[in-house]
Amino acid sequence: MIHIVFQKNDVDVLNEAIQLDASLQGEVILIADDFAVGPLKDIFLAEGWEARREWWRMVLAEGDHKGTVDDGSVPDDTRTAAELIDKLQRDKKEIIWIWAAQNKHDVCGYYWLMSQLKNFQGRIFILYLNNLPFINEKGQLFYPVNLFNIPAKEFLKAKKLARLVTLSEFEVDPDEWARLCNEEKGVRLLEGGKKLVQRDYDYYDADLKTFITASWQTAQKIIGTFLHKAAQTTGDAYLLWRLKDILSSGGYDVQGELKKMRDFEVKLKAGQPETETSTA
């Protein structure tokens, strides 16, 4: 059995669950990229994948995650997918369990991976924790947005949700992913179930601006406040890139170098009114 997850923190909690239940025994593999942002055009061709890598290099340039595209610290997902396919071809009894929670990151990763596993119908299982209640560490009922929010012992209950990906899903889901790739948008949002919609690269800009106030704040604080309060969020690396783009247009005071989140501070120019959100 091979387990697939889409967020780094999911690996640890799932491995912990495996230690509690021998029936879950298997390798846990991470699909590392965040396919909820960035270009997807021709993503299954070498030039399309390299174009995406080049986009990430641009986004991460001079930021907190500079160099991670090429330094080997992040797995190459195309290689991971190729190795998975090779394992399935060599071992006809091998099966895959794809774990996904109700968030755009996991659902986008699911679509990307599923589009490459068409030849293995009957051996791919999905555990989609879509609006399902679990018990947290305090004994309270909650609806997890991410797998890593679920206590390891609760995964023993979650395993009962495993089901085969249907023939219909194998036919429809790759087509849905192809549609998203061809729209050439930069941001993907989850509307419910597995339905994704797309927006332009500047989708988060308006909300991000509301957290810039008349007082000096580090970029780290602005982004942290956004992640805590905004209705729709994304990764901090993407937000840092968008914040730098916002500041490049002028209208704000900046001190420090526009590099890592702790390297510079930002505030509104004198006389510029604060928004209702930033004032609050």
Describe what this molecule looks like in 3D:
The chain has 280 residues and is an alpha/beta fold. 38% of the residues lie in helices and 18% in strands. It has helices spanning 8-20, 46-60, 77-90, 104-114, 155-158, 167-183, 205-209, 219-229, 236-248, 276-279, and strands at residues 2-5, 27-30, 96-101, 124-129, 134-135, 141-142, 163-164, 187-192, 195-199, 217-218, 252-256, 264-268. Strands 2-1-3-4-7 form a 5-stranded mixed beta sheet, sandwiched between helices. α1 links the parallel β1 (2-5) and β2 (27-30). It is globular.
Task: Please tag this protein with its features.
280 residues, alpha/beta, Arc Repressor Mutant, subunit A, three-stranded antiparallel sheet, 12 strands, 38% helix, globular
Based on secondary structure, the structural category is alpha/beta
Give the terminus-to-terminus CA distance: 50 Å
- The percent range for helix content is 25-40%
Largest sheet: 5 strands, mixed
Report a brief summary of the structure.
The chain has 280 residues and is an alpha/beta fold.
Write the layout of secondary structure elements.
Layout (H helix, E strand, L loop, with lengths): L1 E4 L2 H13 L6 E4 L15 H15 L16 H14 L5 E6 L2 H11 L9 E6 L4 E2 L5 E2 L12 H4 L4 E2 L2 H17 L3 E6 L2 E5 L5 H5 L7 E2 H11 L6 H13 L3 E5 L7 E5 L7 H4 L1
Helix pairs in contact: 4-6, 8-9
